[in-house]
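hi support,

uploading two proteins for the ticket. first:
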Amino acid sequence: MIESFDITSDSNQIAIYAGLVTSSFALAEFSSSAVWGRVSDRVGRKPVLLGGLAGTAVSMVMFGFARNLPMVLVGRALGGLLNGNIAVLQTTVAELVTAKEHQPRAYSIMPFVWCLGSVLGPALGGALAQPALNYPSLFARGSLFDAYPFLLPNLVCVCILGCGLVIGTLFLKETHAEHKHRRDAGVELGDWILKKMMGVSEAEGTKEKADVKDAGELEKLLMEHPPSYRSSESSGLRPSMSDVRDLKSRRPIGSGKAFTKQVVMNIVGYGIMA
């Protein structure tokens, strides 16, 4: 792609420009990850994750229509700034999987999917790049994909991101303690679609409503017990108002306390491996 811009004929310079494109995304993502983490504490994990997918899709469209190096750099940097999913996703997994014996398996899925995407993504991009040149019977000369030879792989990635955005809207539940009990129209629509697809009858739906009502009454009875008889770690019940007030009254941890010696060592270790 850099070579097609005819910036220079020196192959060494082309490698430098390609490294700048890669670094622009990493630097922008590094600069915005902590900010997106704080935003997720305020508005919830789900909006930030979905926003990250949408932001990545926008940056890929810009990257596909880029015809010069500055536009490529802006597109990649925009993708890094709008994508705070890595840090927020790890927090979401920790809040979803509370059983310690299941956490190793849950955390192992993320690097597996990341490595799988790192293998399939470049292969897919290379196969779909310059389609008018590689597949002239499908993409004619003078078409949109001939004018923008690197648009097709980005559009395919945008479609994949769109599927993830729809699935996340319909089936991903909020995990933040202060926001997990608010109404989510997307999840409600997803539950309705699942019931229609699974063929849930009206009688079964009535039974489910009765079970929910019984569970609500049981919850009220359990909430009447003294705090010493409740376990917020293993219980799936809604937290009490005092718990919510305690969460809201907590002050955010300063950067000096967050970046402990162990945290700094982990950051340095990951930086060396990267």
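and the second one:
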Amino acid sequence: MASAAHRRYAEIMRDVEDLINDHTNLEEVLTKQVTQQKRGTHERSKLKLLVPSVGMFFTPLLLERAFEFQDERRRISSRRFVPPSFNDIRLILNSAQLLSLVRNERIQLVTFDGDVTLYDDGDSLSDENPVIPRILRLLRQGIHVGIVTAAGYTDASRYYDRLHGLLDAVANAITEEEVEDPRVIILGGESNYLFEFDFHSETFLRHVPRKTWMLDEMRQWQEHDIQSLLDVAEGALRECINNMHLSAEILRKDRAVGIIPVAGPGKQKFTREQLEETVLVTQQILELSSPGRKIPFCAFNGQQS
């Protein structure tokens, strides 16, 4: 039974892999046609027909090989009553991407999320975190490392507080001459604030002015449109607070706005359902707004905010 299930799962992964390859190849052809102003509206990949919202794939996904790899460890096809789970699929996709990167070319950049990836939600990257030696090994190989986080701070010291274990370890590695020129960057606030490692700074971080790294598209964004977008989002959040009787307060920054539990002895955490409802309501209101059609935005559940 296990061998039959294994074979069938592998066939499914191979079929999905073929769909993705077909989709990627067609997208490359259509992109060239757009450049030549020849693209029609009738060309669609099979994957696009099945999943209209699917976007571009920037690397191949070796799904069949990744399934073989994970099945050996998680015994997915040996289970009789528990089907492949979300975690199974996520690990297969992660493995597929890594296998593709390693097979096709030398990796130049590795990026990580912060909360619930490098450390627990709301926590910090402390000295004893087991991921630190692995990141140092990447740096010793000349690979650039980026930490991309939703946490948005304009002050380098706030990022040092969250990432001090890694930053101190990189500084020590330089002192011990284990690493010559480590390239570490922190991209925070959903791509609004950029800091890079600086051995001579007190926080080991140096702010990189936005104008030096902004994409051409970002240069077209007007500040009044950004603030209008945040005004609409704030109004939507207040509506959710009133409708669901949330014990919450608004926290607004220069490029973000959100809700946090009211501080105090009776502080109550939000439920996942309350946060999800707030996200979906706010997202829809923003999508229908005038500034929401001009400025890209991200509405998300931060698990505690």
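thanks. also noticed: Residues 38-42 have pLDDT under 50 and may be disordered.
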